Amino acid sequence: PVDISGFWDNRYMFRTTVDDFEPKPMPMTTEASDIYTGRVFGDDHVLRCQPAGLPRIFGSPYPVEVVDTGSHYLMVFLQDNTPRWVYMDGRDALPDQPLTSMGFSKGVWQDRTLIIQTTHLAAGWLDGSGYQMSGGDGTRIVERWTIADDGITIARTMTIYDDLYTAPLVRTRGSQRGNSNELLESPPCDPTIFYNEMMESGRLEDILSPR
Q1: pLDDT (tens digit, 9 = 90+) per residue, 105-157?
Q2: CB atoms closer than 10 angstroms to residue 178
Q3: Judging by DSSP bridges, how do beta strands 104-110 and 82-87 pair with one another?
């Protein structure tokens, strides 16, 4: 019902993706609180150039290109050239669907709002602050992309349901139509700084050794 194909600039209504969830304070369970207080610099997988994935890439300021294939939307985020498939044909995840950083997403239109539900997410951090995400059966994400009547902007809301929190977590962002001639692609990820800091702090062996 709404054409969302093309480039979208996610710097519109941008907020830094660090501790930007509502409600405040974070409704952590005891387990989540213990994980959060015990976190250290090297625990952030993104610093090792692993995919940011959801929900972190939802808050990225880098553009996204949306391609409507009919059965699904292909969304290519220019942060680390990350692809995402949002299936619109009603299909469900496979019985042996693997857990990945972007998970399995299916969508449905309600008037001018695209509702996307994502499951089968790998465990990770919700943001750079170190809040943990359960992943697997313990995590479900619902996004609502409401397209303005003029088709120029999108109000995006993400709600995260996770067993580590006693209430849903909400993150809000916006997008506006972009110009492909003004695309801003993220620079290649370089983990050198991360490993240098680990070596200088004497924690390199902890990072390289399996836990």
Answers
A1: 999 999 999 999 999 999 999 988 889 999 999 999 999 999 999 999 999 99
A2: 19
A3: parallel
